[in-house]
Amino acid sequence: MQIPPVGTRVMIRHRLPAGSVPPLTDVIGQLLQTEPTLAVRTKRGDVVAVPVDAVVVIKALTAVPVRTADIRHLEHAAALAWPGVEQEWVGGWFCRFGHGSTRRANSAVPLDFSVSTDLAAVADWYATRSAAPLLSLPDRLFRVPTDAPTAAENLVMACDLEQGLVAGDVMLAPRPDDDWLRIYHREVPVDVLTAVVDGSVIFATVPDAAVARAAVTEAPDGMRWLGLSALKVADEHRRRGYARTVCTALLRWGANHGARRAYTQVLDDNSSAIALFESMGFSLHHRSRYVTLDRPTIRY
Asked: Smaller CB count within 10 Å for the chain: N or C?
């Protein structure tokens, strides 16, 4: 019997204790663990434990279809978690500016239902800041013209959270210190890294080895999300489990601070990061990409 990887949506038919009527039952949900017993989170949020030796059939199922509203809600929480140093709503677009550092902090996201297709005002908003007008376009929230060149295709991956203790070898702080910045080794201003709207942010460090950032923000439907970002392992410490250690600490921190689900954004060609997050229970929620506005073609 081959057991699917953690994070897979599964159907398990298993034997009940002797004398039960009926003798078999089924459980459908997300596989949370495979040892020492199988653990499945159902649609209702219940966690069902199934002994491996009681399993009769286990099947991997396709993921539950993601609604457009769910994409909008997650993207809203994500925009608040990485908002740059300036933000403004322009025609239904959430515009962000972060000194030109990182695409995410310097792009406009179509978060309102009545988002405008006339993008002149968005282009002007960025022009006044001497920045190129960049759009962040998640699946289904805005039609991408077929001839528009896209960049940085991202997988937005999500998982459920469970509370737990944060490992003692991971240091958490509300701001990145010199060791964190040295390991991260990207020229992102501290005010961009620490920015969050209506939420909280935390920085995790395994001294001299690995760092990551997380923020808890709330979506319009009330769901509190933890967003993982800025994950980096020092070259000399790779393939030693530090990425998993630092991410696990942040996931537990988020759950302990009221987040029920987590997400991360991974470039679609980063196979090692995708494999890591899949092994931690993340699965594809939707995709997103960036488009630079071409001023002569300002209406999309």
From this structure: N
User: What are the C-alpha distances in Å from 294 to residues 101, 150, 260?
Assistant: 20, 12, 39
Alpha helices in the chain (DSSP H): 68-81, 120-127, 178-184, 190-193, 242-256, 271-279
The tokens for 225 are 């999300």
The whole-number average pLDDT for the span 248-268 is 95
Give yes or no for a contact between 191 and 163, defined as CB atoms under 8 angstroms apart.
no
C-alpha 257 chain-centroid distance: 17
Neighbours of 234 (CB within 10 A): 16
- Integer Cα distance of 155 and 267 in angstroms: 6
Stated pTM of the model: 0.81
Token code pair at residue 4: 């699917």
The domain locations on the chain are 9-61, 68-152+288-292, 157-287
Query: How does pLDDT run across 101-138, given as a tens digit for each residue?
Result: 999 999 999 999 989 888 999 999 999 999 999 999 99
Q: Say whether pLDDT at 163 is over 80.
A: no
Question: Residues 6 or more apart from 232 whose CB is under 8 A from it?
Answer: 183, 184, 185, 186, 210, 211, 212
Q: Which residue has the higher pLDDT, 40 or 6?
A: 40
The token duo for 148 is: 């528009």
The CA-atom distances, in angstroms, between 193 and each of 73, 144, 189, 190, 227 are 22, 29, 6, 5, 13
Taken in order 191, 193, 197, 202, the sign of the CA dihedral is negative
Task: Report whether 278 contacts 271 (CB < 8 A).
Answer: no
Q: Angle at which helices 242-256 and 271-279 pack, to 10 degrees?
A: 50
Q: Which CATH number fits domain 157-287: 3.40.50.720, 3.10.20.580, 2.60.40.1180, 3.40.630.30?
A: 3.40.630.30
* pLDDT tier for residue 46 given thresholds of 50, 70 and 90: confident
